[in-house]
Design a protein that fits this description.
- There is one protein chain.
- By secondary structure, the chain is mainly α.
- The protein is elongated, with a radius of gyration of 34 Å.
- It is about 50% helix and about 5% strand.
- It contains 13 helices and 4 strands.
- Helix 6 crosses helix 8, helix 6 crosses helix 10 and helix 8 packs across helix 10.
- The chain has 2 domains: about 110 residues, no CATH class; about 190 residues, no CATH class.
- The longest helix is centred in the first third of the chain and has 49 residues.
- The termini are far apart.
- It holds the Pfam family DUF6532.
- It comes from Candolleomyces eurysporus.
- This is DUF6532 domain-containing protein.
- Keywords: Coiled coil.
Amino acid sequence: MLESRAASSSVDPDMAKILVERAEKAEALVTTLKEELAESENVQSKLNLKIERMQSQIDKLKGVKQVRSGPVCPYDVNIKQEDDTMSNLLSNDDQRAETEIFPSPPFLTPSHSSSPSIPLRRSKRKEGPVPSLEHVALKKIKVSKPGGDRTKYRMSDLSGLEKLVVKDAQALVGIFVATEDAYPELSGRKDKLAKESWTKVSTKRQLQLEFTITAANLITLGSTRMRNRVKCAARSLVQTLYSITKNSPKLQTRKQVEKLLGRYNYIYKDPVKRTGIYRHPSIQTIINMTWFRNAADDGPTNAEFSDGGDGIPLSTIALTLAAIHCALDEWITGEREDVEFRNHVYQKHYTKHLDSLNELEEHTVEENIIPRLRKHWLKTALNFARAPELSMVPTGHPNTHLTTTDLEAAKSEWKDIDLDEDDI
């Protein structure tokens, strides 16, 4: 009996050997896993160190202006932007004094604004008449400088009410740039325009807010944005409107663009024959897509675009033509390359176009070419926007590019033209 139990309790040698081998393999596997775990922890430690370094670089780069080769051109250029994305950085190159006093200039007219109305929370303030804003002190706000000597201005540095006023003032500046002076920075009107816009919006909303250097510099961004808005529309349209194809040989495209740019041939309905002056469809199309996309757009809601019933302002046409010139310049090599709508480059084209428009108007008084064109541009744009038609009441430059032959040819050509029948 005892022998039977001893035999049953003994382990088969082969089985024991198998168990020992399995135990050794398991131990080796555990050792391998421990080594891999240690290596993984080492890799994770290195990754964490890299992440910390990258985050440190990101923190240093925050707020630094990113230079782009050209504006991002979504077709809908009125995309809503969040407050903190408006942190475009400007330099205070002229090193203003700590406090500057600007005499109050005349208000911008008329009182229309392209900014949508936003309900305001009534601020806690003493009741009484709105104080006079004849003089507003500009107090410089010291902003931290992550690097360099350039002062940075951000929308996030302003209070909620200040942001609201700045946005409305930027819209007023944009309308001014589109209809009166496309380059207030170069004509010395930038600071005055910022002050005018701030004062008008503050008075309209019955707000008593201090006009700071930060607000002044952010307001002037409205001019750059408006110019880029026109340029974006031109960039998206010139390829189709001037029959420029990507698949064409570079040499062919380059010659085509050179001919369009030569003597500003792109202003003609037929650039080759130079007939149909200021009647190329690109002019009307860009006007429509920039300011008259719908009845609530800037054109139908701001009387400046009708110029007292005389039609689209000549400044608006000159800016449109300068934007077309820049968009064509992007194809000058035979393939499209970004070209910035730089002030010092394209302001001269803007001025030449404006002078030529004025010269043509003076030289063709009897034919009434320019007044008819202006009213036709406005009427067509309002129809495109499906907006009510506004009441339209009638009312030798060395820097121009039109020769005497061009002027006489325009007079002859326009004698029998009826814009209601012969559409641009």
